[in-house]
Design a protein that fits this description.
Elements (H helix, E strand, L loop, with lengths): L4 H10 L3 H19 L5 H28 L4 H32 L3 H22 L3 H21 L4 H51 L3 E5 L3 E4 L1 H7 L3 H5 L9 H15 L5 E9 L5 E13 L2 E10 L1 H15 L9 H18 L2 E9 L2 H8 L1 H17 L6 E6 L2 E6 L6 H20 L2 E2 L6 E2 L3 E9 L5 H17 L5 E3 L14
Helix pairs in contact: 1-4, 2-3, 2-5, 3-4, 4-5, 4-6, 5-6, 5-7, 6-7, 13-14
């Protein structure tokens, strides 16, 4: 039958540090014999020292045997406890006999007091070790205390001995009460340690069996479970020698660093956000991070968990790409174009800047599809998208509406309409020239020349709707086609005169 863990640990305490305790007992006995033993026959003093040493040796051997074999069951455990109590009783009796004899034979009151104080010290010193089982301590302390009290009363030489008997009795009662306190404290400490150990085992079992990365950190990772090691590719030993930010993607590092500092500093008790990490192999993974702040050993500690959400983010990006981008060229589609155009118009309304909307298509594109096939046509559309994008600034937008039709939104062309028109037409001419360069489609060696027609309209702020701007640019596009293609036309509001550039 499995015995109680509490009983095992309390029994172990009885035999802990026994070697040092028994050595101290022998040394103390030898000092007493040398100090006050001259008043007794030498043979008696040495006999007592030998007996006390033999008892100490017996208790030491008993402790060593306990450590070697340990208790195998409840009955075996109780047998070891009885052995410990018996050993304590032998120690108490040997010291009680020696104390009484040394006090009686002492030549002065000071010598008697010295013997009593040393014996009292032996009682007090044994209390923390033997209090694990109160019976063991009482078996040791009672014979010594009784010897002091009885000897001081029976062989009293005056009021000092009576006082000594009273003090010894009070000391015995006090230590007996302390033994109960020590015993309760020891049991509570063992129970608490056992619960903490159980909690730690539970935490480690949960942490090491879950698929969620769990870690603690201050300036660097202090603990990470196996799931975390698999996620980032680093071992815990490697992470402990690296700054925490080292595995975070450079693009997210500053945000994660600031959030971590705020959390450790107590400004942010809990957080959840997404960022990228770079694994040991160099792969980029998206994680969903949960962070909290705890205090351990008086110092703040970050506690975090992380889920790998790379597949979810990839799926979201794919869905967003399908919703907002052209699948062939990767350019924004009509939906994203209208969103960006609306944003540009609102910004222009605040700043007073002009913008321009360009619509263009590749002249005679259908003939490429008819004569060379759709693969050749797709290659031309992709190359056209690349060339158009190379002609504009990063803040401008290039979109594909469908077929061979592209839209370009130019921003920040200036406050004056004439200068804005010149800038817009200059960009349109640059695009026209780029699109007119020969194309090499697919693996074919032959080069194909194509021109482009472009329609341009200016706008400022919210004076006209986005749909109206598209219609105006479309009108200008057809004016360019009517003029023989490979041309740029600027839309003019009714009642205005076309600029020379618009008549090309």
């Amino acid at each position: 039958m499995k015995h109680d863990a509490l009983e095992v640990q309390t029994t172990e305490l009885l035999f802990r540090n026994t070697g040092a305790g028994q050595l101290a007992s022998v040394v103390t006995a030898a000092i007493l014999v040398l100090t006050v033993g001259h008043a007794h026959p030498p043979g008696w003093a040495l006999a007592w020292l030998g007996a006390a040493s033999a008892v100490s040796l017996l208790r030491y051997v008993m402790a060593q045997r306990f450590r070697a074999c340990r208790a195998a069951g409840a009955e075996d455990l109780r047998r070891w406890q009885r052995s410990a109590i018996f050993g304590s009783l032998l120690g108490g009796v040997s010291w009680g006999i020696g104390t009484s004899a040394l006090m009686v034979g002492a030549s002065t009151g000071a010598a008697r007091m010295l013997v009593a104080l040393v014996a009292a010290g032996m009682i007090g010193g044994a209390s923390p070790m033997l209090s694990a089982i109160p019976a063991a301590y009482l078996a040791y302390a009672l014979p010594i205390t009784s010897a002091i009290v009885v000897t001081a009363l029976v062989d009293a030489h005056g009021p000092i001995d009576w006082a000594l008997a009273l003090l010894a009795g009070l000391l015995g009662l006090s230590l007996a009460r302390s033994t109960r306190y020590y015993h309760t404290t020891i049991q509570r400490s063992i129970s608490l340690a056992d619960r903490l150990e159980s909690s730690e085992r539970l935490f480690r079992t949960l942490a090491e069996s879950t698929s969620v990365a769990i870690f603690t950190y201050r300036d660097c990772i202090e603990y990470m479970n196996p799931a975390g090691e698999r996620l980032c590719g680093y071992s815990l030993a490697e992470l402990r020698n690296m700054p925490f930010a080292a595995i975070i993607h450079p693009g997210d590092r500053e945000n994660a660093r600031k959030r971590g500092q705020d959390r450790i500093g107590g400004q942010e008790a809990f957080s959840q956000y997404e960022y990228r990490i770079v694994t040991k192999s160099g792969a980029v993974r998206w994680i969903l991070f949960h962070g909290a702040r705890v205090v351990v050993d008086g110092r703040p500690l970050g506690l975090g968990s992380a889920f790998d959400i790379t597949e979810r983010r990839d799926a979201e990006d794919a869905i967003r790409s399908l919703a907002y981008f052209d699948t062939l060229t990767g350019l924004p589609n009509r939906r994203l174009l209208m969103e960006r155009l609306g944003q540009v118009m609102h910004v222009g309304a605040r700043r007073g800047d002009h913008g321009a909307l360009l619509i263009l298509d590749v002249d005679q594109f259908k003939s490429i599809n008819d004569t060379e096939g759709h693969d050749a046509g797709d290659s031309l559309l992709i190359e056209a998208a690349r060339r158009i994008s190379a002609c504009v600034r990063p803040d401008d937008t290039v979109a594909r509406l469908g077929g061979d039709e592209y839209v370009v939104v130019l921003v920040e062309l200036g406050e004056h309409a004439e200068a804005a028109a010149m800038n817009a037409e200059a960009v349109a001419e640059k695009i026209r020239h780029e699109l007119a360069r020969p194309y090499r489609l697919g693996s074919r060696e032959a080069e194909y020349g194509r021109s482009a027609s472009i329609g341009v309209t200016l706008f400022r702020g919210l004076e006209r709707s986005a749909e109206a701007l598209l219609k105006e640019a479309d009108i200008a596009l057809y004016q360019a086609k009517d003029a023989g293609r490979n041309a740029v036309r600027l839309f003019k509001q009714p009642g205005t005169h076309a600029s020379p550039s618009a008549e090309r």
